[in-house]
Amino acid sequence: MHFSYIFLILCVLLYTLNTIHANDDGFKRDKTHLKKDPRDYTDRDVDSLFEEWEDNDEDILPDDERHDYFLRRKDRPMLRPEDLVGKEPEHVMKLSKKGQTLMMFATVSGSPTRRETEEITQIWWWGLKNALYDVTRHVIDNNRILLVLNDGSQAFEIKDFLVKQERCKEVTIDNRPYYGKGATDEEKLKKKEL
């Protein structure tokens, strides 16, 4: 008999909880946005629509296909100081800039007009794009361009390509100049003295 009272109280309690949750708006999705004009949506309608959209969204891109992949990567190599001892500065910079955005400058030799600079650097840019480097080019002066790299570890490979070009005077990475075929010996000596 004692168990029957406990069982009855338990059933009444479950029935009460079920009734309370059935009337609670927090547990049900409000789909009033289906009947309204989109211009009349309230914040609650928009939130409900967004939740429904997210629940039905199955087109999630893999991590490596997202545009901000390099910014979100958690598997960047950890640099330990003992690994860097005796390495060339370029190699150290390559390791430290991996997966980070890097800006580098390139100077066109001679005294070209802005249009000539655009034409010359457009050829360089296409060469880099054909080699599958993700580079953005901006002309900032009559003879100078800014290259933005999404992966800074590629900077020295791009620098090697640019300094081999006939009209490339100088490539600058982190305030360190590298001279190309277009630079004269006098300019190289002047910079080394500074």
Number of helices, where a helix is a run of at least 4 consecutive DSSP H or I residues: 8
Strand content: 5-15%
The gyration radius over C-alpha positions equals 31 Å
Main sheet, how many strands, which sense, barrel?
5 strands, antiparallel
User: Order of strands in the sheet with the most strands?
Assistant: 2-3-1-4-5
Mean pLDDT: 80
* Estimated structural class: alpha+beta
Distance between the termini: 100 Å
Q: Any idea what the shape is?
A: elongated
Low-pLDDT regions: none
Order of helices and strands: HHHHHEHEEHEEH
The strand count comes to 5
Helix content: 40-55%
Gist of the model:
By secondary structure, the chain is of the alpha+beta class. 45% of the residues lie in helices and 14% in strands. It contains 8 helices and 5 strands; from the N terminus they run αααααβαββαββα.
